[in-house]
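Input structure tokens:
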């Protein structure tokens, strides 16, 4: 029997790929920054690079810019991949296939929340703290905690996805092939339909999503907005 590779929408692959690329780069440069300026909980012999914090901030900024689009896609076009109203009940079916699929939805949702926390705490920091040796700010500790959480979240995300879909599922996110309906040539038409829907009261559909996802989406979007606004008053 011929095994077919799962198909992922092109827009999902682009948003997921860009977000993942910037986040992984931010994670790696975050540890390098910690290793250069701090190292109180262990370090490895990385070369000292005093400009590494600026590089980390750049990748963090790119992540913050692309993440809202990815979050909107996840909570609307991809909401079935996130927790559902019956997800907690299905967690009781330990060992069954539905248990793994439900666990996968939880880890997908956990990654979104972990990334939100990392981006928010990063924006609350001051880029002069570490070069000055100011290592005891609450927001710095929060951002260090966010680094640990996002690393664990991504590890679980990859582990559970590989369990659910195996290597074909992971490779499907890296494929460059796309179906005709996903062609970028149709994107302008999709944007026009989306805008027309808004003008005709499409926003009412926003509130028809599961209540849990609705509030999680509001929490994430407000956190991103606050991450831009709060630093203006610091």
């Amino acid at each position: 029997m011929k095994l077919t590779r799962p198909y992922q929408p092109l827009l999902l692959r682009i948003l997921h790929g860009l977000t993942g690329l910037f986040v992984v780069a931010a994670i790696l440069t975050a540890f390098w920054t910690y290793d250069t300026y701090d190292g109180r909980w262990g370090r490895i012999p990385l070369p000292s690079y005093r400009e590494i914090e600026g590089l980390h901030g750049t990748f963090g900024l790119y992540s913050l810019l692309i993440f809202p689009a990815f979050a909107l896609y996840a909570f609307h076009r991809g909401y079935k991949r996130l927790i559902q109203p019956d997800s907690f009940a299905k967690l009781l079916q330990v060992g069954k296939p539905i248990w793994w699929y439900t666990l996968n939805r939880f880890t997908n949702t956990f990654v979104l929340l972990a990334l939100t926390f990392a981006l928010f705490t990063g924006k609350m920091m001051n880029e002069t703290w570490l070069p000055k040796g100011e290592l005891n700010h609450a927001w710095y500790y929060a951002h260090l905690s966010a680094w640990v959480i996002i690393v664990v979240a991504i590890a679980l995300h990859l582990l559970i996805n590989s369990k659910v879909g195996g290597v074909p599922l992971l490779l499907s996110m890296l494929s460059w092939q796309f179906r005709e309906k996903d062609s970028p040539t149709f994107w302008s038409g999709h944007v026009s339909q989306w805008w027309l829907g808004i003008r005709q009261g499409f926003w009412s559909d926003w509130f028809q999503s599961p209540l849990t996802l609705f509030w999680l989406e509001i929490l994430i979007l407000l956190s991103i907005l606050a991450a831009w606004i709060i630093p203006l008053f610091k």
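The chain has a mean pLDDT of 87. The chain is about 65% helix and 0% strand.
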